[in-house]
Amino acid sequence: MPRVKVDADVELDKSILASLSFQERLAVGIGRLKARRRVTNKDLAEQLGVSEAYMSQVTRCMRDVKLSTLDKMQREWKVVIEDLLKVTEDDLPRVAALRSRRGKKKRTAEPAA
């Protein structure tokens, strides 16, 4: 399998792109949008009329998104939802960062033996 070097410590197979959940795809797409527009979760939340906490949870795959919120994203941000859900090899660093943040939280939540 072709591998892409993402960090000094993290490597991901390109095949991981096919296994991403809807939440992960959306989080990566929102991350890409934030980087292109140079905006924060707070900025995006204000545009949608939702809380910054809600937007943060969505970008960390901790919260499901309603269909009405997806529709609002499309209208307010002037994007096509399919584009937000499309993840390519260029997004591998974002996928690695997302998975590494989620992995750290899971490891710290384990009880000590």
TrEMBL record:
Pfam families, alphabetized: HTH_26
List UniProt keywords, sorted A-Z. Plasmid
Presence of the UniProt keyword Transcription regulation in the record: no
Determine the domain of life of the protein's source. Answer: Bacteria
Q: Where is the HTH cro/C1-type domain?
A: 35-89
Supply the InterPro entries for this chain: Cro/C1-type_HTH, Lambda_DNA-bd_dom_sf
Protein name according to UniProt: Transcriptional regulator, XRE family
